[in-house]
Amino acid sequence: MKYGIVLDSLFARHNIPAGHPEGPQRIEAILQAVQRWNPSGQLVRVAPLPAQEEWILAVHTREHWQRIQGTSGQAVSQLDPDTYTSPDSFETATLAAGSAVALTDELLQGKIDSGFALIRPPGHHAESNRVMGFCLFNNVAVAADWAIRNSAIEKVAIVDFDVHHGNGTQEIFYARSDVLYLSTHQYPFYPGTGHFNQLGQGQGEGFTVNFPLRAGAGNSFYRHLFSDLVLPIVRQFDPQLILVSAGYDAHKNDPLAGMNLDVEGFGQLVTLLNSLAQEVCEGRILFVLEGGYNLKALSEAVVCTMETSMAPKTFPIGKKEHTEEYLSYREQARRVFSTYWDL
Ligand SMILES: [Zn+2]
Q1: Would you say residue 309 lies in a domain?
Q2: Position 272 in a domain
Q3: Which residues are tagged catalytic?
Q4: Range of the domain at 91
Q5: Is residue 307 part of a domain?
Q6: Ligand 1 mean position to 177 CA, how many Å?
Q7: How do residues 101-137 score in pLDDT, each as one tens digit?
Q8: Under a CB-based contact definition with an 8 Å cutoff, are residues 253 and 294 in contact?
Q9: Ligand 1: distance of its center to the CA of 291 in Å?
Q10: Ranges under pLDDT 50 in the chain
Q11: Closest by alpha carbon to 215, among 184, 193, 236, 243?
């Protein structure tokens, strides 16, 4: 197993006001955790790569690109209520998006079997023409679109388990049928989007799949949801590549959200997604970091994701039985999606 990672202290250079949860400390914590874990030379280091302008312009407007580029070398500026730039943010953001592409390229060339882009700033809230929610460029969207334009890949599934809805990824691919966007997220919650009834439009109708979840959902609920609904939908979509918007802010100790997953819960989801990738697309799956703001939970869950990917393991399963609440949620979701998917 050749497992590729992009992980570099360069991603700490996007340095927004002290105390902001999406700060350089996130990358530093992951660097330290990976160093402690030290999987003796089994990781293939993929060098960070700045995105070419055209890769970003394939999913963002020129106006958006210029707005971020204009902050290069400038003092800290606030672009939306929680999104800031520092002098190095433009360079770091282009490096994040480019690194997601670099890892995708390594995968498609067969140089790695799977991998993780441990990058920041995160991307899934960034819309085609709007920065939002700590995100400047939409890294996972840039990589998905790049794969379709530059390889034999025709269909990409993006599975987003960050606790927040990826409004940006949804908006970018809303009218497209070649990218499935599927998200599980706390709802109602920031950013407010991600209801069941946002299903895509035009040719893209049915290819946006949202699972809005009440606060408090934990390992058992998520695991059943993935087994019963998430995996069957992705299986039927039959992608040649799976990209995972891997945010770890659904962890029970995350300071920003109210979900109840623990590290083993994330491990279970990773196991399910990896086996799905083996089944549908010869194991082609890449994880791209989004949120996760409890540094201990974030770094442990990231290491668990990599360990589980490199040597599949089974996790002790908590509650096996379906709760009434889960069963009624599953019924509701089946009613919504059965127009498009055989569930
Ligand atoms: Zn998030």
Answers
A1: yes
A2: yes
A3: 125
A4: 3-337
A5: yes
A6: 25
A7: 999 999 999 999 999 999 999 999 999 999 999 999 9
A8: yes
A9: 4
A10: none
A11: 184
